[in-house]
Specification:
alpha/beta, plastid, 17% strand, 10 helices, Thi4_fam, single chain, iron, chloroplast, EC 2.4.2.60, 30% helix, eight-stranded mixed beta sheet, 358 residues, globular
């Protein structure tokens, strides 16, 4: 009975995407400029019928045919665009290592500044880290207040309780922030790419050493396969807690003597852990900021388990630390102004000019 009453109460408090907060930055209450959004379909349409679209060409599923194309065109389109991105981001402003909830939140916050280019390096084919599900393969995502303000900003609906909110499926958060982030013209996600090492010059982290993730996983079974590099003014390490590719940033810093130890995270304590992860998000060595669960690894903070607010806010803080390091307006030193915030939902136009700096 109590469980059913609680569920009823939660459902009755579901927040709407139409909330005015959807157009406000979660930092210092800035109202984000309105932006025109081009779309091929209306988000308000309830019907999935392909013939019910209010605009655009109709087609008949009974006699459907695709437009003809040469196979070589498909190959050239993929190759040209990817290689253009590799050239463009070989020397960039910020590299974020790891596209979990903290890394995505960090890149989202940085990329509001349209003058800053952000490359995200993710070893998995599917970015998102552990944020596709809640704990123990359950669907719901629990976010403790006041981190729900970030959900309001990006437009993720939730059920509300007194001290926390529940996103009915974690994938709603992950897919939403990715769609907002990857539509921006100053962001490129390089997934299936591993950060094998760091570039260090004069005791400052100056970029990352990259390779295809499948190559990195098979160095012991093949002959030498040299990596590639990506220079950056700032590197943000959000590799997560220890694991096959976890905490690789801070573990490498220890290997090369730039930090003394990586004690590893302590046993679970949600109330201590989330505050500590946000508080300790920082530039640990010149040129490298650490965010998310990797913070717990370097500082010996408790693990937080299946609650995700600290990942979002730690990522936002790391983003503003990166902007501060670049000398850009940010929420940490009071220089962030309403007109400096990148408009929400601005889509990278298909006809936008390519960026290449050889």
């Amino acid at each position: 009975m109590a469980a059913s009453m609680a569920t009823s109460s939660l459902l009755s408090n579901t927040r709407s995407l139409a909330s005015d907060n959807h157009h406000r930055s979660s930092f210092i209450g800035l109202r984000l400029p309105a932006a025109a959004v081009r779309s091929h379909s209306s988000a308000s349409q309830a019907s999935l019928s392909v013939t019910a679209a209010s605009a655009g060409p109709k087609y008949d599923l009974a006699s459907f045919r695709f437009q003809p194309i040469k196979e070589s065109i498909v190959s050239r389109e993929m190759t040209r665009r990817y290689m253009t991105d590799m050239i463009t981001y070989a020397d960039t402003d910020v590299v974020v290592i790891g596209a979990g909830s903290a890394g995505l939140s960090c890149a989202y916050e940085i990329s509001k500044d349209p003058s800053v280019r952000v490359a995200i390096v993710e070893q998995s084919v599917s970015p998102g880290g552990g944020a596709w599900l809640g704990g123990q393969l359950f669907s719901a995502m629990v976010v403790r207040k006041p981190a729900h303000v970030f959900l309001d900003e990006i437009g993720v609906p939730y059920d509300e309780a007194d001290d926390y909110v529940v996103v009915r499926h974690a994938a709603l958060f992950t897919s939403t922030i990715m769609s907002r982030l990857l539509a921006r013209p100053n962001v490129k996600l390089f997934n299936a790419v591993a950060a094998e090492d760091l570039i260090v010059k004069e005791d400052r982290v100056a970029g990352v050493v990259t390779n295809w993730a499948l190559v990195s996983m098979n160095h012991d079974t093949q002959s030498c396969m040299d990596p590639n590099v990506m220079e950056a003014k700032v590197v943000v390490s959000s590799c997560g807690h220890d694991g096959p590719f976890g905490a690789t940033g801070v573990k490498r810093l220890k290997d090369i003597g730039m930090i003394d130890s990586v004690p590893g995270m302590k046993a679970l304590d949600m109330n201590t852990a989330e505050d500590a992860i946000v508080r300790l998000t920082r530039e640990v060595v010149p040129g490298m900021i650490v965010t998310g669960m990797e913070v717990a690894e370097i500082d010996g903070a408790p693990r937080m388990g299946p609650t995700f607010g600290a990942m979002m806010i730690s990522g936002q803080k790391a983003g503003h630390l990166a902007l501060k390091a670049l000398g850009r307006p940010n929420a940490l030193d009071g220089t962030l102004k309403a007109d400096s915030v990148h408009p929400e939902l601005v889509l990278a136009a298909a006809e936008a000019s390519e960026i290449v700096d050889a």
